[in-house]
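Q: What would this chain look like folded?
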Amino acid sequence: MAEMFDMGAGTQMVIVFFVLLFLKVPVAFALGLSAIYAMWVLGFGLDLVGDLIATGIAKFSLLAIPFFILAGTLMGSLGIAERMIRFFRVLIGGLPGGMGVVGTVVCLFWGAVSGSGPASVAAIGPLIIKGMHEDGYSRSFAAGLVCTGAALSIVIPPSIGLVIYGVIAETSISQLFIAAIIPGLFLGVLMLATLPFAKKSSPAAGSPSVEALMPMPDAGLPYGKRLWRSFIDSFWGLVTPVVILGGIYSGAFTPTEAAIVATVYAVLVGGLAYRTLTITRLYEATVAASASSAVVMLVVAYASLFGWVVTVDDLVGQYSSALLGLSDNQWVILAVIMLILLIAGMFMDAITIMFIALPIFLPVSRELGWDPVWFGVLVMVNLAIGLFTPPVGINLYVAANITKLPLERIAYGALPFLLTCTIGLAIIAAFPQMSQFLVNVLR
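A: My prediction, written as structure tokens:
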């Protein structure tokens, strides 16, 4: 255990990183500066920095990230999200739970389109939150539901998080996508089971009606006709997951190629089917997606320096040995790993956590004989919970910007979902068959 507190260059780098975070230095630059400091301590020249960054980002699989972000941004800005919500309102809006059920289903469905939690909150959050509030839910609970459902975007394929995990762990991204389907849907079911515990009330006088944002022109028609018309109207958006996931699982294209196909498909649907695509909207979506992609890729680039120091200074060996020495029981070690990830998710984004923690945790998982695909799904569920856990749950901040509610109120609204998702994480960990079933069937 003494090695665990060794103040070598790698350990100093970790300390410097957290000090920089505390000083509110952006995560990417905190990674880069702390790594460069450690390289200087180790005696390596800065001329190595450029080569390491280039090597870290020159991976074909990483191309999926900007294109999935662009596809999700386009679909959110071209009216596809609105049509989906309208269809599900007609289909299941009459069930007990009303717009709460609609919001949960739309979040899960949108997760198969977007791949990014914050982007999902921004795309579908305004309509769902207003609809749930009109249906009698508190705005904080509605925002908590959207934050939770959108967080599952990094679990439900195609997931940007799973792409990055596959690159780091050198594991099949297609198998990760397949393995995440049942756990993602299971967490959605747990969200539905949370709805009866919400306190519903009559909407406050003067509260904005969801009809004002999302009118239902066929409201006077019989249910069958309304359902058919809303289905036809939203058809091209509804088949998006079929196009993306069907192409991956059939072998028509790889997950990276699927991201490009999704982007082209979004442009075609917006331009030809719905005719909502304009040069201005295309430009704005491209700018927004470029900004989001740049943040992610900066983290990836500087994390490659961080990871190199971790390897050179043998932090992996030191910390993984310490972790394995905690107990002879693998479930105790798994619980410690999950707890570390949960706590880290309260303060850092998912991508940063993966680049810092996985080089240490993956050797432990291999030593214990854990399936890397199952472990990847577990990690992603864990990091999804971090997206709506205060104080730095990024989905909470996006929802606060949408609703103009204080962050603590939204965090309170998300608390029931935090509890049920944590229970779900424990169940997924205890029953690896949930992750492995479809992978074994489709082999």
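The radius of gyration is 22 Å.
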